[in-house]
Amino acid sequence: MTATHIPVQAVVEFATAAFAKAGVPEVDAAKAGRLLVESDLNGSDGHGIFRLPQYVGGLRSGRVDPNGAIVVDIEGPATAHIDGGNALGHLVMARATEVAIEKAKSQGAAWVGVRGSNHAGAASIWASQMLPHDMIGIYLAVGSNNFMAPWGGFERLLGTNPIAFAVPGLEEPPILFDMATSIAANGKVQMAQQRGEPMPVGWVIDRDGNPITDPNKADDGVLLPIGDYKGYGLSLMIGLIGATLNGGQFGREPTDALASNTGQAVLALSISRFGDANAFKRRVDAIARDIRGSGRLPGVDEIRLPGDRASAVREERTRDGIPVPPSLRAALDKVADGLGIAHLLPA
Amino acid sequence: MTATHIPVQAVVEFATAAFAKAGVPEVDAAKAGRLLVESDLNGSDGHGIFRLPQYVGGLRSGRVDPNGAIVVDIEGPATAHIDGGNALGHLVMARATEVAIEKAKSQGAAWVGVRGSNHAGAASIWASQMLPHDMIGIYLAVGSNNFMAPWGGFERLLGTNPIAFAVPGLEEPPILFDMATSIAANGKVQMAQQRGEPMPVGWVIDRDGNPITDPNKADDGVLLPIGDYKGYGLSLMIGLIGATLNGGQFGREPTDALASNTGQAVLALSISRFGDANAFKRRVDAIARDIRGSGRLPGVDEIRLPGDRASAVREERTRDGIPVPPSLRAALDKVADGLGIAHLLPA
Questions:
Q1: Average pLDDT of chain B?
Q2: What are the chain B neighbours of A273 within 8 Å (beta carbons)?
Q3: pLDDT digits 0-9 by tens, B229-287
Q4: In chain A, which residue ranges form alpha helices assigned H by DSSP?
Q5: Shortest distance, CA A254 to any CA of chain B (angstroms)
Q6: Residue B128 — very low, low, confident or very high, per pLDDT cuts 50/70/90?
Q7: Chain A: nearest CA to B110, how far in angstroms?
Q8: How far is CA A72 from the centre of its chain?
Q9: ipTM of the predicted structure?
Q10: In angstroms, rounded to a whole number, what is the distance separating the alpha carbons of residues A320 and B183?
Q11: pLDDT of the residue at B254
Q12: Which of A111, A227, A274 faces B226 most closely, judged by CB atoms?
């Protein structure tokens, strides 16, 4: 069965209705609904409407607070520390990026760290918030579940802690890059599980160091980091700076079942503080074109810039809607029935 | 033949004398000499006194300006753009980190970008400058030589662009992590060349995508990025933010043989703007101990934190001196003879 394409606005409204019915104040529900769909628009299918059942489940069980107060509790001229009050991650990160952008307008750069947050969708959307302001964005997030071990170890002490960067071009699409520090993100393991397909050797090892290829046994092992010890080091540093610095949860720290205390951080960097913004964007365009037009290895059709696919998907989905496969539709119908709201699609 | 261990102060004085004789003003020569040896103290043997012949060669040939004026030419409350005037990279980065630290004291965070700089030794030493100020440091550098290709390509359009992070512990050594975005740094290729040893499959590929294992043929190929497209994306982002943003050289941009126009950037982040600094450092200690004591894969003797080796080497070399193997000693004697200064070691 193929996916049905649903107009973006309908998906936003469905998510908004679900959040509101789950107790989130209307204006916040609308904001979270709009921001949730940003992940789908960037092509991060595992981080958009796909996650709505998880988010609504969190709100209904009390693990996420629909009325969580998001408070800037320590503030410097170019910094802010935010306690997210265990609100929806999208609302916490929206506030964090708004504060970072405002501060970077006057200070040139700003770093905002949060604790008490939750999963906030695809990393790229938070780095991208800076682009309309002629700023470069960097975003770090610390997973509240650990899937990776220190290099040489087998204990799950590290998240796949992603990092994202966004740099604007002038005529070329923005360069957006986000990555997990593991070879395969946990979402890819889940997809292999859903599809009943084996995982390639190199994604997961067991505690003897042997590969696990059955995705149903992935929980017995650990995800391998990129670049061996390098991915371990990156994940650790993102954890320390994105969570520990802010009082967020990291490593072996106990999980409160009623709050994941997710840590995230964002940097906004105003381009005009380093030279003319348009001149910079023209140089970015030139570099993007150089790379796209450069010599290809045999069998390679196209050299892409990070963000090329996100831009193409955004254009396509804005026009044609967001693809909702039957399994997701069923899961969303269940959410709608549980909340007593209208289905995303009439039966 | 084994390495001779030379007291740290003697190595600093030798480098200082060499820089001064090559035209660098005395006070700057002393500063650069001291900072050059920091790489040796961190255990980055390929980035310390080993590079002196290259640096002196640059100064004498005019490729590096011994009197280059280092100017903060655009300044915001939390940002600075520095034109390094093609001075020694160590002097440019020393100024950049000083400015970043001063600004972060009052603003909480500061980002400083430089153009017109040069090779500045090991990345870790610049991130580490923030540690005594209870700050976290991040440093990005953009190689003036390209060794990597875009993912799917074979043209050398990207440097191995390193990134470094430094986070202080309270009783535990600082967590220092620096990495090149390629699987093997170019220095490792040079070492394999010197030793006449083959390179492992996976370091370098040729333009058909086949592995090159003869280090003497490495120049016919490209270094592979960590994590496939992820290392490509990271290298690209570091290039755009570390060089392009500052007007430094990146990608296919022409190299002026008389100036490499290296771009670098540094972030200083004041810990106390996010909570109590000692409480943070205690949490870092606890995480470091958890990781060190965690379960090991078969055959693994020890789980290390990034920076553990640097701290051990620093202690050892501060006590026993810096190892200078015969080949390096010969190269340094040649530098001394060329400049007319005393040898590092009496014959």
A1: 95
A2: 74, 76, 79, 81
A3: 999 999 999 999 999 999 999 988 766 667 889 999 999 999 999 999 999 999 999 99
A4: 8-21, 26-41, 52-61, 89-107, 123-128, 186-195, 229-242, 277-292, 308-320, 326-339
A5: 12
A6: very high
A7: 7
A8: 22
A9: 0.96
A10: 41
A11: 66
A12: A227
Q: Collect all residues with Cβ–Cβ distance below 8 Å to B111 and sequence separation of at least 6.
A: A108, A109, A267, A269, B78, B79, B100, B265, B266, B267
Q: pLDDT band at residue B112, thresholds of 50, 70 and 90? A: very high
Q: What is the pLDDT of residue B145?
A: 87
Please give the C-alpha separations between residue A124 and each of A47, A83, A86, A310, B75, in angstroms, as whole numbers.
11, 22, 22, 9, 29
Asked if domains A1-67+311-347 and A70-182+228-292 share a fold, the reply is no
Put simply, the answer to whether B227 touches A291 (Cβ < 8 Å) is: no
Six-digit token string for B84: 């390094």
Q: What percent of chain B has pLDDT over 90?
A: 90
**Count of beta carbons in the 10 Å neighbourhood of residue A86:** 27
Left, alpha or beta for A314 (phi > 0: left; psi -120 to 50: alpha)?
A: alpha
Of the candidates B152, B283, B305, the beta carbon closest to that of A300 is on B152
What pLDDT does B10 receive?
98
Cα–Cα distance measured from residue A14 to residue A52, given in angstroms and rounded to the nearest whole number: 10
User: The CATH number of A70-182+228-292 is which of 3.40.630.30, 3.30.1370.60, 3.40.50.150, 2.40.50.1070?
Assistant: 3.30.1370.60
Where do the domains of chain B lie? 1-67+320-347, 68-179+227-292, 183-224
The model's pTM is 0.96
Judge: A302–B152 Cβ closer than 8 Å, yes or no: yes
Cβ neighbours of A167 in B, within 8 Å: 237, 240-241
**Per-position b or e across B246-263, b if 16+ CB within 10 A of its CB:** bbbbbbbeeeeeebbbbb
pLDDT beneath 50, residues of chain A: none
pLDDT of residue B258: 72
Quote the pLDDT of residue B187: 79
User: Which of B72, B75, B79 is most worth mutating to test chain A (most A CB atoms within 10 A of its CB)?
Assistant: B79
B1-67+320-347: what CATH class?
Answer: mainly alpha
Q: Which two tokens stand for residue B44?
A: 């980055």
Please report the pLDDT score of residue B185 as a whole number: 85
Bridge partners for B178 per DSSP: B164
As a whole number of angstroms, the distance between CA A228 and CA A224 comes to 7
Q: What SS3 string covers chain B? A: CCCEEECHHHHHHHHHHHHHHCCCCHHHHHHHHHHHHHHHHCCCHHHCHHHHHHHHHHHHHCCCCCCCCCEEEEEECCEEEEECCCCCHHHHHHHHHHHHHHHHHHHCEEEEEEEEECCCCCHHHHHHCCHHHCEEEEEEECCCCCCECCCCECCCCECCCCEEEEECCCCCCCEEEEECCECCCHHHHHHHHHHCCCCCCCCEECCCCCEECCHHHHHHCEECECCCHHHHHHHHHHHHHHCHHHCCCCCCCCCECCECCEEEEEEEEEHHHCCCHHHHHHHHHHHHHHHHCCCECCCCCCCCCCCHHHHHHHHHHHHHCEEECHHHHHHHHHHHHHHCCCCCCCC
HSE-CB at B203 with a 13 A cutoff on CA atoms is: 20
Does B233 sit within 8 Å of A306, measured CB to CB?
yes
Task: Looking at the structure, give the CATH architecture of the domain made up of residues A1-67+311-347.
Answer: Orthogonal Bundle (1.10)
Cβ–Cβ of B231/A226 closer than 8 Å? Answer: yes
The CB density around residue A344, as the number of other CB atoms within 10 Å, is: 24
Enter the CATH code of domain B68-179+227-292: 3.30.1370.60
Q: Residue B303 and residue A231: Cβ atoms within 8 Å?
A: no
- The hierarchical CATH code for the domain A183-224 is 3.30.60.50
